[in-house]
Design brief:
The chain has a domain of about 60 residues: Alpha-Beta Plaits. The strands form 2 sheets. A 4-stranded antiparallel β-sheet has the order 2-3-1-8. Helix content is about 50%, strand content about 15%.
């Protein structure tokens, strides 16, 4: 794996996992060791933790600076030490991620047959906005059924998708059910790349469903952070399609079992390593 900042040279490859942005790793770290704890963590100890993952001090500092600009963390100074603390906005994002990991899960067994449908038509003068809207819809779990018509299983709250885009007059949002000759299975096949989603889960299993994952990692704190980051990115890209319309051997089923088993395996030893490394205060 090569881990580096978005703008600076990448650090040397040290672990056989995909490219991961430092911000994603730091977010996983803060979600586990800062969220709902009421603590601020010293920048120095964050640098020390991420040195174990092969992330340079320069990459950590530049990533934290960008996170400050994006209102994800704030900086505190106590004497000669600098500390970082989560903002309310970051806490909301992390809680959403925690829900996706521990509550929503990777397998949708509770679908009630409804779809959220988003139709939109934007003039050519707003191509950039159209691109942004499509990207946000993908992130929210929607797939393109046909030109200007996107669907997602279940009832979705889409207000955040349209925030700051100024598209309300160009968008229609409905809930619907499939009626013959339209079949729900056909909608899944048309709007979503099932094989691509499956490949992501198989890649996760190839990394983590083995006797000894990441044998070159220095400790279970590193494995824990990489595992959580890998899994969260995976489930956030998953549109959470209804299990009844997916193959019986859908790899997300096994992948979710593996994630929970590994997360439990790494929790205690990772906490011990973190306890030796982290310097935190209550602001």
């Amino acid at each position: 794996m090569t881990i580096g900042g978005e703008d600076e040279p990448a650090a040397p490859a040290v672990l056989a996992v995909p490219v991961v942005r430092p911000q994603s790793l730091i977010f996983s770290f803060l979600g586990i060791y800062a969220l709902d704890r009421g603590t601020a963590i010293s920048s120095g100890s964050v640098i020390e933790v991420f040195a174990r993952l092969g992330v340079s001090e320069e990459a950590v500092r530049s990533t934290l600076a960008r996170m400050v600009k994006r209102d994800l963390v704030t900086r505190l100074r106590v004497g000669r030490k600098a500390y970082i603390e989560l903002t309310p906005y970051a806490e909301a994002v992390l809680r959403d991620g925690r829900r996706r990991i521990w509550e929503t899960g990777a397998v949708n067994r509770d679908w009630d047959g409804t779809w959220t449908v988003v139709g939109f038509s934007l003039p050519d003068s707003r191509r950039s906005t159209r691109h942004d809207l499509r990207s946000r819809l993908v992130w929210a779990g929607f797939g393109p059924l046909q030109s200007g018509l996107w669907i997602a299983p279940g009832t979705k709250e889409v207000t955040d998708v349209f925030d700051a885009l100024d598209v309300d007059d160009h968008v229609t949002v409905l809930t619907a059910r499939a009626f013959r000759p339209t079949e729900a299975a056909d909608l899944v096949a048309k709007a979503f790349d099932i094989e691509q989603i499956a490949r992501r889960y198989r890649a996760f299993l190839a990394r983590w469903d083995v006797t000894r994952p990441l044998p070159d990692a220095p400790d279970d704190l590193v494995r824990q952070l990489l595992l959580h980051t890998d899994w969260l990115q995976l489930v956030r890209q998953d549109p959470h399609l209804p299990a009844e319309h997916l193959p019986a051997d859908w790899p997300a089923i096994r992948a979710e079992q593996v994630f929970h088993a590994r997360a439990m395996e790494y929790e205690r030893p990772a906490l011990k390593v973190a306890g030796d490394l982290l310097d935190g205060i209550t602001p």
